Amino acid sequence: MYKTLLKPLLFTQSPETAHHFTFSLTKFAFNFPLIGGIIRMAFRYEDKRLEREVFGLKFKNPVGLAAGFDKDAKLIDEMAMLGFGFIEIGTLTPKPQEGNPKPRLFRLPQDEALINRMGFNNGGVLEAVERLKKRKSDVIVGGNIGKNKVTPNEKAIDDYLFCLEALHPYVDYFVVNVSSPNTPNLRDLQEKEPLKALLTAVKAANDAKQNPKPILLKIAPDLTDGQLDDIVEIVQETGIAGVIATNTTIDRSQLQTNKNKVEAIGAGGVSGKVLKSRSTDVIRYLHQKSQGSFPIIGVGGIFSPEDAIEKLEAGASLIQVYSGMIYEGPSLIKRIKKGLVTYFSS
């Protein structure tokens, strides 16, 4: 139904307009008792073999919704109905910000990819907290946190600590995002010394809490092997819980879409099928280099159960989807879970 009816309709609209339309439709339809019940029945698929315990949390299944889809925690209960094992909100910043000028989200149907330069558009962490207080589902929620565009890198730690403090009672784990290509100079924080200082500060603030939460680091797919070696060292030295691999890429060499069209779009990070191989390579490298000493959440180019299995075999403990759901529809989650049950049983 999604591919034959809804997707063609959505793809006649601009990507960001379609995104907001989908949000409104989901919020409206899923909260009618009859429709909500039908959706739960249609997408429900749980199995004991899917359950996972990772960084001290018990997941009903290993399939999560990646950050960026529900930035402001507006659809947690509705997304939980689709069968996700966990949902990551954000990236959230201390102050609300509009993000980059529109248009800033683009489809590349030939590549089944997206280009975005959203720029951490969100209503601010305090607004998200008010929504989190009202959520009803028990799905695991991660809080992806970043810095405001106007905050200089030398004061970035303050922004991350502000978000940690605000969100701490309401999320199950945290993700430190220093890997978006759409906030000026943000990726400079991935360099060894700034990153170590940031993670040390965030972990210390978290450890001082009565109920510390797992702290993860989200990294870019564009890091060199030497930089990935530094990531392994920093994760082990700081004692954070794990890594999310990977964010969007600035590499466009694998795209089949007309080069002039891609150049006309301008700056932005690429997600979708073209990211699959590189994200898997990064997962495998980190897993082997660290000798499996920390969990990895694999994200990037997951469009099928086979793609998910590939990530797990490379060393991921959990996986996340986003672009795959845009192109394949929400039934992808159930298909992946069914495929994983068969895989785990073999």
From TrEMBL:
Question: What membrane topology does this protein have?
Answer: Peripheral membrane protein
What the record notes about the co-factor is: Binds 1 FMN per subunit.
| Protein's pathway | Pyrimidine metabolism; UMP biosynthesis via de novo pathway; orotate from (S)-dihydroorotate (quinone route): step 1/1
Query: What GO molecular function terms would the record report?
Result: dihydroorotate dehydrogenase (quinone) activity
| Primary location class | membrane
Tell me which residues make up the Dihydroorotate dehydrogenase catalytic domain: 50-341
Pfam families attached to this UniProt entry: DHO_dh
Listed binding positions for FMN are A67, G68, F69, D70, K71, T91, N144, N177, K218, T246, G272, G301, Y322, S323
CDD domains recorded: DHOD_2_like (cd04738)
Q: Which InterPro entries match?
A: Aldolase_TIM, DHO_dehydrogenase, Dihydroorotate_DH_1_2, Dihydroorotate_DH_2, Dihydroorotate_DH_cat, Dihydroorotate_DH_CS
Cofactor(s) essential for the protein:
FMN
Biological processes annotated in GO: 'de novo' pyrimidine nucleobase biosynthetic process; 'de novo' UMP biosynthetic process
Show the active-site residues: S180
Keywords in alphabetical order? Cell membrane, Flavoprotein, FMN, Membrane, Oxidoreductase, Pyrimidine biosynthesis
The EC number(s) attached to this protein equal 1.3.5.2
Q: Which PANTHER family match?
A: DIHYDROOROTATE DEHYDROGENASE (QUINONE), MITOCHONDRIAL, DIHYDROOROTATE DEHYDROGENASE (QUINONE), MITOCHONDRIAL-RELATED
Quote the function comment for this protein. Catalyzes the conversion of dihydroorotate to orotate with quinone as electron acceptor.
Description of how the protein assembles with itself and partners: Monomer.
Q: Which family does it belong to?
A: Belongs to the dihydroorotate dehydrogenase family. Type 2 subfamily.
What protein is this chain from?
Dihydroorotate dehydrogenase (quinone)
Recall the taxonomic lineage recorded for the source organism: Bacteria, Pseudomonadati, Bacteroidota, Cytophagia, Cytophagales
